[in-house]
Write a structure and sequence with these properties.
The complex is a heterodimer of chains A (115) and B (109). Chain A is an all-beta fold. Chain A is 0% helix and 52% strand. In chain B, strand 3 and strand 4 form a beta hairpin. Classes of the chains: A mainly beta (115), B mainly beta (109). At the A-B interface, strand 4, strand 5, strand 9 and strand 10 of A face strand 3 and strand 4 of B.
Chain lengths: 115, 109
């Protein structure tokens, strides 16, 4: 299957700083990528849909000014957590929709810890 | 919101078939059923998907009822490495996935 990578795999930052997470589709072009977060012992929660060349669509309750998404190319989407606080500590996972639209391939996730 | 309900947890003996049920009674005619699994602290792994017909691949079989209101994922010969959380998902027309709580499957030696 297709491969989706995320960078970094983990990050620790101080409260108030911003953190950027990259999501790349390595062997296919993805016009649509998705961002999720997962708190311990909970399921994945969809945060936003990222479309190449246009603004992301955010799920209800997700602050677009806090979680900035940029999908500037067909293989890269970035999520920036601005002014991170301890409650933003979570496992952030991206996925990319394959060109046929039938599958979503998930990245390995990025664990964010805000001190 | 997730359109699926699954049992919270299940056990299965190693080497036996694991049958994981899922209810999706509000599924629409053009919505697919997907199954993914997640091993601790990793991204979800695709298993199988289907619309109306039963499907089989090298990992599993998917049985969808005729009215499409429920489905069952079958792992024919469970191994210890199949211990994971299994998610049944109905894919919406915009391709969004809304994950439910999933089933935590434990394969017992």
């Amino acid at each position: 299957g297709a491969v989706v990578s995320q960078h970094p795999s983990w990050v620790i930052c101080k409260s108030g700083t911003s953190v950027k997470i990259e999501c790349r589709s390595l062997d296919f072009q993805a016009t649509t990528m998705f961002w999720y977060r997962q708190f311990p012992k909970q399921s994945l929660m969809l945060m936003a849909t990222s479309n190449e060349g246009s603004k992301a669509t955010y799920e209800q309750g997700v602050e677009k000014d806090k979680f900035l998404i940029n999908h500037a190319s067909l293989t890269l989407s970035t999520l920036t957590v601005t002014s991170a606080h301890p409650e933003d500590s979570s496992f952030y996972i991206c996925s990319a929709r394959d060109p046929s639209g039938n599958e979503q391939f998930f990245g390995p996730g990025t664990r964010l810890t805000v001190l | 919101d997730a359109k699926t309900t699954q049992p919270t947890s299940m056990d299965c003996a190693e080497g036996r078939a694991a049958n994981l049920p899922c209810n999706h009674s509000t599924i629409s005619g053009n919505e697919y059923v997907y199954w993914y699994r997640q091993i601790h602290s990793q991204g979800p792994q695709y298993i199988i998907h289907g619309l109306k017909n039963n499907e089989t691949n090298e990992m599993a079989s998917l049985i969808i009822t005729e009215d499409r209101k429920s489905s069952t994922l079958i792992l024919p010969h469970a191994t210890l490495r199949d211990t994971a959380v299994y998610y049944c998902i109905v894919r919406l027309p915009g391709n969004q996935f809304y994950f439910g709580t999933g089933t935590s499957l434990t394969v017992i030696p």
